[in-house]
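assembly run, all chains below
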Amino acid sequence: MRTTQKWAGIALGCTLAILGGIAAGSPVNEAALKAGDGPVQVKIDNFTFAPTPLTVAAGTTVQWVNRDDIPHTVVSDDKTTFKSKALDTDENYSYTFTKPGTYTYFCSIHPKMTGKVVVQ
Amino acid sequence: MAEQKKDEILYDHNHDGIDRRGFLKCMAWAGTGALYVMKGGVLNSYALSAMGDPLPKEAKGELTFAQISDSHMGFNKPANTDVVGTLKAAVDKINALKKQPEFLLHTGDISHLAKPEEFDTVDQILKGSVAKDVFFVPGEHDVIGDDGKQYLDRYGKGTQGGGWYSFDKKGVHFVGLVNVMNLKAGGLGTLGPDQLEWLEKDLKPLAASTPIIVFAHIPLWSVYPQWGWGTEDSAQALTYLKRFGSVSVLNGHIHQIMQKVEGNVTFHTAMSTAFPQPEPGKADSPGPMKVPAEQLRDYLGLSDVKFVRGKHALAIVDSKLSEGAAARTENNSAY
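ok done. output:
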């Protein structure tokens, strides 16, 4: 449990660093985006993916964590690139984005929930 | 963990792990089901928990059946950590009716996570029903992860495509539709061209005087698209139903009673046997309502007792949390 929390902390740190970079319009923080730093987290809460859009470097692993008390899924729009099983409360799913591009995804149970990952 | 204490067993008189006092409190808001009576080609609906037993005099007709919905077997969070108990109570309530419904309809979200053991548990509980026939349609929770393969293996015998089918009972034509497969990003429930084509053909030979009952999980009318409470291509399906004099559409998905009359079509949604959801737009998201059981009555009481009369179709809808139901729950909890 302690390990998980630590990971979450690191991931959140990365996410904030990236967001900060985008918000300020400054060059993307290379350190934060470097592949192999650990997963970048997307939180699922209140039927919403956040942050979205999320910009990461190629090779980055994105981890989605479900904080709702209802299950959700993470499925690429083409339904083949990535596709999680049902994530119950506090379960997570990770996918490593190796190729640059824009990846849109949704929750196949609640398709009104959509998100985007931009891989540079 | 403080919330969990509410669900501790305090009065286990029969040593069967069921706290009847806490349980009945739960049943004040966990919908048990709806009873439908077809009378003179007109469908009347009654929320079981608001109804006295035996059946009211007016609840007599040529065909009686019951609808249960959204049992979400496997859900175990506040405000209902006992979805097994609330589904059993729904079955008990139906079994206690003097005039037994001829069959049950389950309008989907049988399971919470489409796990085999969740389906097994529901099947086991429904075996306790006096009415032996149960007709299912899937909810989106029943087809998670395998595009409905397991659902079809279990419930799909004799169905078409993604599990749609029709049957006739005492002159009434029933159509079970599937609108939870192949959902697209950003979209609503979907029937799809294959099913629509089948529906058109299925209805074609019927006389316009045939009463039609359509059942599907996600509402076939636009309840609240912002939360996905609607079906993209339902308008097309409804055009095929226009020529019929009496059409009733029964849905689940939104865990609350709503009804609407539009021309010849009466739309109903049923409560969940598991947990309530907020009224459209009254919360940040459609997640389960976690209001304490004692207060939930007030929340759900807003809908009150309703009598809906359209031009052609009638629906009497007793919302379950009428004063009478609340009082009866109190009385029952005394033993």
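Residues 2-332 of chain B form a domain with the Purple Acid Phosphatase; chain A, domain 2 fold (CATH 3.60.21.10).

The CA atoms of residues 64 and 315 of chain B lie 14 Å apart.

not gonna interpret more than that til we talk
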